[in-house]
Each structure stands twice: as C-alpha cells, then as structure tokens.
From TrEMBL:
It comes from the Bacteria. It comes from Halarcobacter anaerophilus. The chain crosses the membrane at residues 14-35, 47-73. Keywords: Membrane, Transmembrane, Transmembrane helix. The keyword Transmembrane applies. InterPro entries: DUF4282. This is Uncharacterized protein.
Length: 80
C-alpha cells in the first residue's frame, strides 16, 4: 500500500484495460446514435456496407489508441 501512495506502483495500465472494454462496447451504440440523429436511411445494401466498414475502422482505431498507451506504460515499467 505504501508503494501505491509513493507512486511506485502504476495503476494506469489496469485502468486502460477497463476503458478499452467500455469503449469497445460503446462504439456500436455511438455509431447507431450518429445514424439515428442524422436520420440516415439504412434500407440500402451499399449503405449498410459503409456502416459496417465504419464500425470496423472505429473498433480498430479504438484498439490501436488503447494499445499505444499500454505500450507506453510498459516501456515506462521496463525502464524503471
């Protein structure tokens, strides 16, 4: 417990794991909300393909974004 208060223990990598899971679940809802807010019609197969591609890219971006921070903190732990 003393290490925690002296900042010898890093808790951010654990927090980033939970943030990633929350974001990965939230991305489909955000995409759905965006398309409902701007009242896009989802009756077209081509448009559904675009939504699917956007969803995949957003999930990949979110994963890469969180992995960047995980690698950053792992480098920090390896150097300390």
């Amino acid at each position: 417990m003393i290490d925690f208060f002296n900042f010898n223990t890093i808790i951010t990598p654990y927090i980033i794991s939970f943030v990633y899971i929350f974001g990965a679940v939230a991305v489909p809802f955000i995409v759905y909300y965006f398309f409902k807010k701007y009242k896009f019609e989802i009756n077209n197969a081509k448009f559904r393909l675009y939504i699917f591609i956007i969803f995949i890219f957003l999930e990949l971006f979110w994963r890469i974004f969180c992995e960047f921070f995980m690698v950053y903190f792992k480098i920090y732990l390896a150097l300390s």
